[in-house]
Predict the 3D structure of the following.
Amino acid sequence: MSQLRTIGGLEATEILSRIRTAYDEWMAPDCSTREQAIHRTVQLGHVLESDIRFQLKAIQDSLHKPSAQEWARRAELAAHRGHDFETSSDAAGPLRRSLADGAVLCLNAGNLPMVGFQDLVAVLLSGHSYLGKVSRQDPFLLPSFLELLSPRLAERIHVSLELKDLASHVAPGGGVEREPGSPSSSGSPSSFGSLTAGDAPPRPTPTPESQAQSPEREKPSLKAILFAGSEETASEIQDIIAEAIGAYVRSLPILLRTASYSVAYLASNTSEAVDHLVESIFRHKGAGCRSVTAIISPYSLADLGSSIQHSYARLFTPAQAAAPNLTPLQTWMFAYHLASNHPTLQLGDVLLAQSPSPRVLPGLVIWIQGGMVELEDLLSANEKRIQCVYGTGDAFTSSGEVGESEPPLSRSLAEMIDSRFPSLQLEQLADAQTPGLNWKPDGTDPLEWLMGLRHRNRH
Amino acid sequence: MSSVSDVHADRFIAIEAPFEEAVRHVLRLHREGGGLHAIFLQQLRELGVDWREENWQSIPLVPIQAFREQILLLDSSKAGKTASDLEFRSSGTTGRATARHFIGDDALLRESILRGFRHVYGPPDRRPVVLGFLPGYVENPHSSLVHMLTTLVEEQAPFHGVIPICHTHEHLSKHLEAFHEAQRPIILFGAAFGLLDFLDVMERVHVPTDGGRQTSISVQNPSPHQGAFPLPSGSIVIETGGMKTYRREIGKQELRERLSGGFQLPMESIHSEFGMAEMSSQAYARGSEFLEPVPWLRFHIRHIENPLLECEPGQTGLLGFTDLANVHSCPFVLTEDLAEKDEQGRVRILGRWKGADLRGCNFLVERDA
C-alpha cells in the first residue's frame, strides 16, 4: 500500500538508492559528461575547479553516509503514517496519486556548485516532482548528473535557466491537468535541453520503463516554493515567480532560507582545528551560508595568525591563494583596523580582523577574542542571519573543559546553544563544508517540511 | 601651531562660518593631535586611496563602531577622564556593544545644542516654551537626548520658568492641561514611542458616549478634550528616536499622521529631531520626513559596497556625517543607518542597515533572473 504515496511506486529509500547509484556513476573517473560539465562551469569564471571537485565529492560522501539512509527511511515512515490517515480512494493508482502530490519549485542560488542538490533529493523523497530554476553561474552540473538518473525519477524533474520554461510543466492555476503527450513531449529529461540552445546535453531516448509508466501524462500542480533570500527580497522574488508562472503562486507555501553566514567557536589551537577553520572560511571563496564569517576564540588572531597562514598555503592551490585586490569596502575596513592597531590578516580576497565590537561586512571575517559571553552577545545580535555555529571537538564535551592546554569554558557550547538559541544548529567545525544530506538549513529539515506539506495538502 | 585648547566655538559652529574652511582646520587639528581619523586617513593613503581635502564630501569617514571600540578623544591629556566627565552612551542591549562618546569640551557642546535649536526655532524669549517628554530615559544617565533637553530647559528658564522634563504620563498630562487652559502654545519635544504610548493611553481612557461625544472614564485624569489630547494652536510636536521599543514598528509618515491626529495639529506642526550619542549636533525635519542639519553639520550618503564613494541625491546608502562640534572626538563618521539625501543636502532616514548579503546564498534575482 505504501507505494501509493511514492513516485511511480518507489519508496523513499529506493529513490535514494537510485540517486546514489546515478551519482556514483556520474562520479566515475571515466564519466566524460561530468568532466565536460566541470570544464564548462569553470569557464564561466565564478567558481574554481578545485572547489567544484571538492563539492561534488562532498555530495557523494553525503549520499553514502548512514544519516542519508536514515533520512530517507524517516520519509518512508512518514509516508506510511500519512497513508494510515488517508481516506480517499486508492483507485487512482500509483502514478495518479503521486502526481496529486504535485510539484515543488526550487530556485538554485548558484553561489556554490550544485548548491540545490539537497532540495532536489528532498523533493523527490517526499514524493513531489521537482522544478528547478538553475543559476546562470552553475547551469551545467545538475543537468549533467540528471542525465544518468533512472527515467522513473527523471521524468519528474524539470530544470531550466528560465522560470517561464518551467511554467509549462505544471497545471495552470494550481490544479491538476492531464497533458496530452507522448514520451518525447513529456518534459522528462528532454526538458534539460531548455538550458541554452546548442548547449543542451544530449536527450536520452525514452526507455520502455518510462513509457510503461507514462502512457499518458498529467501536469502536476505546483505546491510549494523553496529558495534562499532575505525577508526584504522575498516578495520581489515572489513577484518574479508569479509573473513567470501565475499569480496563484503567491498563495503557495514558501520555504525561505534567510541565514547568510556561520560562526565558529574555536576553543582549540591545534593544527587540525586551524585546518578546519581555514577550510570553513576559504572554501568556495567564502561563499555559502555554511562558510564561517565570524570567529570567537579564547586565542587572539595575533596568536594564531601564522598558523592560519601556513594552513591556508597548504590547503589551497596557488589559484585560490592568489591575492586579488581588496574591494573598496575591505580597503576602508582594513585602514580602520590598522589605524586602531587591531590584528588583521589578508589572505586571498578575504580580510580577517580582530576587534572588540566588529560589524559583519562582506569580504570581512571578524575575529573576537573571548569566550561564551562574547559568543552569546554575537549570536543574540545576529541570530536570524546565522546558519550554523561550529565548535571544535572538545567544545562539545559537557564537562566545561576544552582540553588541558586550552582555556576552560564556563559551560559547554552545546548546553549554551541548546538553552539560548534552540533554532541554531551546532555542528563540528570539521563538517562546515561537508554537511550531511539531512542537515537543516535555517533549522528546517526540507524533507520534513515537504512531507508535512504533502499531508497538509491531502487532509 | 594650533591646539585643541585654543579651539573656540565660533571657529567651528558659527552659522555663517565657511564650512570647508572649518573642515580643513579640523583635519589639521586631528593630524597634529594624532587623532584616529588622521591615522585612518594615513592608512588609506598607504593602501592607495586618495581624496581631495578641499572637497568635504570626499573625505573618508570612520566606521561608527570606533565609538564602541575605543576612547576617541583628541586631546591626549584628557584620555584619563574620570566618571564625572560628560560622556554619552548609546542605548545598547549589552554593555559590550554600547557606544561611548567622551565630550572634550562641554561649552562647545552646549553652544552647538543651543545655537542649533535657535537657528531653527528662534531664541528662547521668542519661541514657545519647550516641554520635554522622555519616559524611560531617567534610567540612562548618559543619554545625549536627556542632556540636550536639559540644556534647552535651562536656557529657557529665565523666560518661561523651570519646567522639568516629564517622565510619566501623569506629569505630561498635567502640564499639557495647564498649557491648554492658558491657550499657550508649546513645543512638545519627546521620544516618538513615548508620545505614541501617551496618545494610546489617552484614547483608552476616553470612551464614546452620547452620539459620539467622548467622556473620560478616568477619575484621576479627567480630560475635557475630544480626541486624544489637543494642543493649543501654534504648538509644535518634535518627535525623536527610533520606534523599536514601541509595541509595533510604524513608518515615519504613519507616525506623523498619528501625532497630528492625536494632538490635533496640522501635519506641518509635526517635526522630527535627529541626533545620536556619537553626534554633538542635531538635524530637524519641519513638516516633512527630510532632516535639515544645522549649519556646522553635514550629511553624507555613502555607497554600501564602497563607503569611500558619495551617493547621488535620491540614492539609498549608508548615512554619514561631518559634525564639526565633534572636533574633540571624531567629526567624520559613517553610521549603520540607511538613508537618502535630497538636492538640498537634507536626508531621510530609512532604518537600520541589516547587513549585506555577505557571502551567503541569496538567490541572485538581479544578476540571475
